[in-house]
Amino acid sequence: MRPVLKFMENVLIERILSEAIDILCKLGVELQNKKVLSMLSEHGAAVDDHKMHVHFTQALIEKALDTAAKPFKLFDVLGNETHFFAHDNVYFTPGSAAIHFLDYPGKNIRPPLTDDYIKYAKIISQLDFIASQSTAFIPADVHDKISDSYRLFLSLLLCEKPVVTGTFTIESFAVMKDFQVAVRESEAALKEKPLTIFSACPTSPLKWSEVTSQNVVDCATYGIPVEFIAMPLSGFMAPVTLVGTLVQHTAETLSGIVISQLTNPGAPILYGGSPAIFDVRYETTPMGAIETMMIDCAYSEIGKFLGLPTQAYISLSDAKLLDAQAGFESGIGATLAALAGINNVAGPGMLDFENCQSLEKLVLDNEICGLCLRLIRGIEPKDDFPALPHLQELLKEGHLLIADHTRRYIGEEILFPGPIIDRANHSRWQDEGSKSLEERAHIEVNNLLTTYQPSRLSDETKNEIIKLMEAEARRYGQDSLPFRNI
């Protein structure tokens, strides 16, 4: 039996959906994209071009939900299936787009550089329990106009895993799409085997910018999956109650689904988000707050109720260092996400309100993810009945360490975490150097950098991607790229 977690009865989910649809029809949303407004108008929405505002219709929303892609798959750079976003399948991915990087030893937070990103890509390629990479942080040593495409470029060049990414500009999309077409060799092949997921973020409350709405259109056109990342803040940019925040989150997400499905019915999507409560004491948006995690799990229930695969920013911490807070917030989030069956769980490696990435935290979080994935496999009998022979053998031998039953099932029944989580007794811990968790994590980071194997993507494709990236950099006056020096 797979353990599951639920926060809401279906009657509450239905009421939240009804209220959200009512808001979209009566209040509508601000939408700063004339082309998208025109498309909505052509399909019966009430559009005010002067105010750049649209009122949806219930029929339009229901049609979009009917055509929205239900389950879909994701594939690595070699074309191998890695994800099936369906049911309660759970996959972990690092958090995205941090602007800071935590050095070891962990008290120096600074802007990330290309060298940091290369180390990150080499490490993430070897973490067994994190199924995809993300464009995790923004290197500060390239022109800001290419920071989006550059992160995806490095990811595709160095790591075989699929990528959760996104763009903060309309212009970056073209070359980011071209990278993927180069890997797949055609647009048709890219649609057949998606390689990335793009994040698309409405602005709370009830607003789509020109950039983010165009990203939704562009991704739908090319069959690139989108995860909708609505970010209402309870008590600040959303009602203070969790239910009120869920109503607003639902409305903002449904509006994005309509844009996607009108562009290309059946375009693959994830029902996601990154909401948070607002801590009025510090004027912060704590991702490690239990209420934030409850909202994440609850809106995932709404997505599943609609038959859609889901995503959440959860399993991360607001701590500034790799300390006890970082561990317990990330661990609680990963556990809740796994039990809730959130399909794409974004967060490992992240600190400081989604602003900072740590390689040491990333390798720790990989082990936390492994424990959570073991948890949701649940408990089931494996040649346990009749139990009498096992107890007879135990009494006879004094242990079951080398019993056939033990050797047959120990690998799948018990997950032994890696070198970060310490299970040695005190004397052995002392004999091995009395290392702290942070020290063990740093050693593992260095070990993974040593054991890294280059991506098996063909040299021809790598060279094509490099030429595309160099041409994009020259458009903005950057004649050389830092990765050449690594």
Question: Can you walk me through this structure?
Answer:
The longest helix is centred in the middle third of the chain and has 22 residues, at 242-263. The chain has helices at 10-26, 34-42, 58-67, 114-124, 147-158, 172-184, 187-192, 210-222, 242-263, 290-305, 324-340, 359-375, 388-397, 404-413, 426-431, 437-451, 459-475; strands at residues 29-31, 46-48, 53-55, 72-75, 81-85, 91-93, 100-102, 109-110, 133-134, 163-165, 196-200, 207-208, 226-228, 233-234, 269-270, 276-277, 311-313, 344-346, 350-351, 356-357. Helix 4 runs parallel beside helix 5 and helix 11 (324-340) packs parallel to helix 12. It folds into two domains: 10-57, no CATH class; 66-375, TIM Barrel (Alpha-Beta Barrel), CATH 3.20.20. The chain is α/β, with parallel strands linked by helices and 486 residues long. The strands form six sheets. It has a five-stranded parallel beta sheet, with helices on one face. Strands 2-3-1-12 form a four-stranded mixed beta sheet. Strand 4 and strand 5 form a beta hairpin.
